[in-house]
Amino acid sequence: MPCSVSSTPEMADDARRRFRADGSRGMRVARSAVVIGCMAVLVQTASPVTAGAAPLCTPPKGSPRVEGESWAQRRLGFQRAWALTRGKGVTVAVIDSGVQPDHPMLAGRITEFVDLTGTGKRDCVGHGTGVAALAGGRDLAAAGVPLSGVAPEARLIVIKQQDADSDRAGGARLAKAIRTAADRRAKVINISITTGNSPELAQAVQYAQARDALIVTAAGNLDGDGRSAGPAYPASYPGVLSVASLGPAGAVAGTSDTVTRADVGAPGAAVPTAWTGGYHPGAEGTSFAAAYVSGTAALVRSYHPELDHRQILHRIRVTADGNVGQGSGRGMINPVAAVTAVISGEGPAGPPGGRVELAAPAPADHRTRGIALAVTGTALLLAGIAALGGIFVPMGRRRGWRPSRAAPVTANTAVSEEGDDEPQARPVGTIGA
């Protein structure tokens, strides 16, 4: 999508101050007064932190408000399932950059916060706050904020495995995070991060699955040149629920990496969510799509506690709305159908109230050619976001926290086991509107 957004030297300086780099990409700027249907990325290299200095944590500050209910909430309609379940009794682990614990959507919602980075129980990026809020954040409608997590009564465990000041958060730490989640009996594990294949990571996934955890992960994003870094992990492992990003028109988002197998799609373009210090008016990427699916999985597990993780994955896949083209898997998730549908051969499925018979689903599509995001729907939506007017939402991160796209394969950004003993984990969501 062609676009033009101006930036200032002050914004670039701010990006350098905020995030370290090891071949890193800098921040994406959401300048809502001038953004009309487009986004811009500032590619910067930050100065390294002096050895021995306290880790710098100056998280990007979000917008103070959200304007109107998002297309994603309207499209998914997950509130209609709340008469049956809000996710109570299910533990969801969010493996990410941590969270802002006192954010209105998350205050009192975090059961446990595990920091594997040694940088403190905080979110220096914003990414983890946004992901956790969509999966299980509090419903703020009564407070005048039209935003809610899918499963607002699920138990949330936060496992911080990445920080803005971390140089390498590779497969080993991600594997440890997965095992940590499984040991805490998480039944849904959200991983909005991609990395390369490694035996240690594969074994951690198997460890969690043996404890009946459903792993939901982002399928990954294309790099800035529209190229794939290759199959992403853990999304490519058997039994992992891999999620593509879909836009307002229902098509696969232009940034969604279709090389990696996708089981389903979910909203991942122009998605409002919580952010450090406020709200993000339009997050992008498979990171946020995965969060919607994790919340849906929590609803299903709460309503159907007799089903194991394989049956939950199957139920979410077959109740999706049907593939919408290459790279969409079974298509957009349908939270209400996932909770209420009667599925042949599944066995006992909880109380009968409100369920519907399910038609045969359209075949999944795992082909690897990408489809561009429908321009018109996104442009109109982002034009609405621009009406916020006069509010800067500087969002950025170090190399791992790429603005909406996967980092290209270079000597410093390994994404496969070959030639690198510890593949790099990389979050796969934007930090720009």
From TrEMBL:
Enzyme active site: 96, 127, 287
Transmembrane segments: 371-395
InterPro entries registered for this protein in UniProt: Peptidase_S8/S53_dom, Peptidase_S8/S53_dom_sf, Peptidase_S8_Asp-AS, Peptidase_S8_subtilisin-like, Peptidase_S8_subtilisin-rel
Listed GO biological process terms: proteolysis
Signal peptide (UniProt feature, chain positions): none
Disordered: annotated span: 402-433
Record keyword Transmembrane helix present: yes
Pfam families referenced in this protein's UniProt entry, alphabetically: Peptidase_S8
Domain Peptidase S8/S53: 87-322
Top-level taxonomic group: Bacteria
Example GO molecular function: serine-type endopeptidase activity
UniProt keyword list: Hydrolase, Membrane, Protease, Serine protease, Transmembrane, Transmembrane helix
Family to which this protein belongs: Belongs to the peptidase S8 family.
Full protein name: Peptidase S8/S53 domain-containing protein
Native species: Actinomadura craniellae
Taxonomic lineage from the root: Bacteria, Bacillati, Actinomycetota, Actinomycetes, Streptosporangiales
